[in-house]
Design a protein that fits this description.
globular, UDP-N-acetylmuramoyl-L-alanine:D-glutamate ligase, nine-stranded mixed β-sheet, 11 helices, alpha/beta, magnesium (chains A, B, C), homotrimer
């Protein structure tokens, strides 16, 4: 039972997160920085966001988790990311890697493959990005070598590792009409990795909490503009009752595939 | 008649834009990035925003239009912009150039004049910026050499080329109390250039759609804070009826001047 | 009486600010840029935000005040900041220095100490940052040498210089759940320094106006998401009656300490 996801377990972890106020260091793209910081603050975590190569090791090793997002991958970020990743790795911090748009840039794709060698805890990617990273391989098999678990986002989200997956059904199409919702979702997973030791469960918690808040917000919003404040409010106000009412686990698979 | 602007024609183009979901690559300033991305998403387009010189050619040539905005013109942007402009030019993509604050920085002004040699489709500028770019010349005459059309923004917007201009009257003063509304308006013009082949009409559509959404939002907003979500919602919800009700074309001039 | 803070005096300065529309040049962190610009616009000031070393001297010397914020201190900012500071100093513009997170980064701390030698008008810092800058010294004594006045932020804000301090009690805990509220507060102080010649009074005005707007917004908001538009609206709508009703000066000390 300890390895399965329930709404009670999510609510407990959310409470623990709010008490612990973990600091999540985010090397994320320029478009997502402000929204990601506000998502983490609304959730109950604390963001730090510097990307300066000279400073990032200290910020990453003293943080409770690290998010690396490859959007707007400029020279400063390209220098800072491996430094931060190794600092977090040495300090045994959980690490989320979000290889944004590797399917559009060969440079990013090569860079992301190199980062996977450094064994991040979690890879967050959509199907196009996975196909670019691992052409003609089954995603969970491909990742087994690196030891990372996978959160594959889409209309339905699949979280897990080879032989153990959760299919999650929360979310709302209006989230795709706001920039950086996916990027901020990766930061929420990092925040749950800071308080929940089972990384598959932590990732599933992050996906579910963000998407449930998105559902609540979409019901209140007239469009993508009013969705943003409503989403941050929903993350701030989210409680066990709402999680229990809305959590949509399509399938939870514990056994080995094949 | 095909060369004149009507509310029906705007509504049709907006429908085409929403179906085509053109990707607009934006090299824009750090202050405007997030808001511009959200404006494009609310409108129905897709933003991509990287400014890395190594990656920007691929992003620009595969996009449906390119926006170049000279705000916060740092070294990375200064390197990336000519690369992106040429890549988009070779791929025959429409290009919007927004020479923000060239009247405050000689470096930018020289840089913007060089970019005009590369023949962008549209120059979006206010009167002070035009005066800095072309001292003591009539704006439409000055631009005729470069082949670019002009969207000159102000209390009243003037869009066109030598001998063919539209004066447009939509908008609201509260828009000037929100950062990057002008910059985001340039992105909306780029989005219409991706679906409408007559660049004068496309620019006028972009100006009108953004400003009509601004009027709707200003009527609902208590101030510049609530204007932002209302503006994004208005862009998302905008329909032909609202466009028809509000479109304010002060003058549409088809003949040659002089 | 001219050296003391009253709600009437704040209301008059706010009126003067709105009439003068001072331009505040902000070299601030990537997370805070957009929100800071919107706070200044809502207040009635005009932001300029470039951080390019090649351009920043002209922008800073022609501005009415300069804000230097050390968050996300990358190489471009590290180069631009001393240039901007000296340009503003030569042009006799007021300068606010906000040494964000100097307690987390030795590089920043050294950099901030060097900047203090250049005699900014105002240092905005919390207790942890002051302790990092001046270990085992009383904050107001430590600053006396540099000639800067201090705005020390916290649950209660203390503004002043050795022998002359104001303790200010406005504000709301929800402000801490939104990123960059502190950074934007520094920009508001810079805006009041542009219209009020007594820097202690100007800083106290900035602190009070921002925090009063925060209180109004927090009463209307459901959470940190809806706080942001409400805060900007409150800054835009703030009037003398509201300031008079809410201003909370805990103590105003004119005499010399000890």
């Amino acid at each position: 039972m300890t390895s399965s996801l329930t709404s009670d377990r999510i609510a407990e972890a959310l409470g623990a997160l709010r008490r612990a106020t973990p600091r999540i260091h985010c090397i994320t793209n320029a478009v997502a920085q402000s929204f990601t910081a506000n998502v983490l603050l609304a959730l109950g975590a604390v963001p730090s966001m510097t990307i300066a190569p000279e400073e990032v090791a200290g910020f990453a090793s003293s943080a409770d988790a690290l998010l690396i997002n490859l959007g707007t991958l400029d020279e400063t970020r390209r220098l800072a990311i491996p430094i931060a990743l190794r600092a977090a790795q040495e300090a045994k911090r959980p690490i989320v890697l979000d290889p944004v748009f590797v399917n559009r840039s060969e440079i990013r794709c090569t860079f992301a493959r190199d980062l996977l060698q450094e064994r991040p805890t979690l890879l967050r990617a959509n199907r196009d990005e996975m196909a670019a990273l691992f052409p003609s391989r089954e995603p969970f098999d491909a990742l087994a070598e690196s030891g990372a678990i996978l959160a594959m986002t889409g209309a339905e989200d699949v979280v897990g590792e080879r032989g153990r997956t959760l299919r999650l059904g929360n979310g709302h199409p209006l989230l795709a009409r706001v920039t950086a919702t996916g990027c901020a979702g990766g930061a929420v997973m990092a925040a749950f990795l800071a308080v929940e030791t089972d990384p598959v469960i932590a990732a599933a918690m992050g996906v579910s909490v963000f998407n449930i808040a998105g559902e609540i917000a979409a019901e209140q919003a007239a469009g993508p503009g009013s969705l943003v404040p409503a989403l941050l409010d929903a993350l701030y106000l989210l409680d066990g009752q709402e999680i229990s009412k809305r959590l949509n686990i399509i399938e939870q698979r514990e056994g080995r595939h094949a």
